[in-house]
Amino acid sequence: MEIEAPLARCYEIVADLESTPEWQSTMISLEVLDRDSDGRVTRAEIVSDAKVRQVTSILAFSYHPPDRMSWTQEKGELKWLEGEWRLKEIEAGGAGGNGARTEAIYSLAADTGRVLGLLIRGPVEGKVKDLLTGDAAEGLKHHAEAGA
């Protein structure tokens, strides 16, 4: 997803996990469980709308400023889950970041396990994947460009 905003603005948004439900519509709630010494969320319980049902996961987050953030599921309804944001500056822009553009890549890999896997099959599986990844990328784009 190409975003008309500076890389620093995009990273600030993805690293501010507590505000994510405001711009990512498939994220129903986020409860902070732990923080690091810098106050960043390192563990959180997240409830997501996977359309066929709500899915709850406890995720551990790793920060790699200025261009990457990743997470893994520690506990949850999925067998396993890993994800990351990768940001790349496309165009630096002028003073104040005007004209800056960032490429944002949202990756999500998961094994739904047997029970959820029975609900998410065939064409539904593709729609759920598109919904979860597309919602995150579109939400970041809209939120970053609105405040850029």
Question: Can you characterise this structure?
Answer:
- The radius of gyration is 16 Å and the shape is globular.
- Helix 1 (7-15) packs across helix 4 (122-147).
- It has 4 helices and 7 strands; from the N terminus they run E-H-H-E-E-E-E-E-E-H-H.
- It has helices at residues 7-15, 20-23, 113-119, 122-147; strands at 2-3, 27-35, 41-49, 54-64, 68-76, 80-91, 101-111.
- By secondary structure, the chain is α+β, with helices and mostly antiparallel strands.
- It has one domain (2-147): Alpha-D-Glucose-1,6-Bisphosphate, Chain A, domain 4, CATH 3.30.530.
- The mean pLDDT is 84.
- A 7-stranded antiparallel β-sheet has the order 1-7-6-5-4-3-2, with helices on one face.
- A hairpin with a 5-residue loop joins strand 2 (27-35) and strand 3.
Short description:
The chain has 4 helices and 7 strands.
Topology:
Elements: E1 2-3, H1 7-15, H2 20-23, E2 27-35, E3 41-49, E4 54-64, E5 68-76, E6 80-91, E7 101-111, H3 113-119, H4 122-147
Antiparallel strand pairs: 1-7, 2-3, 3-4, 4-5, 5-6, 6-7
Helix pairs in contact: 1-4
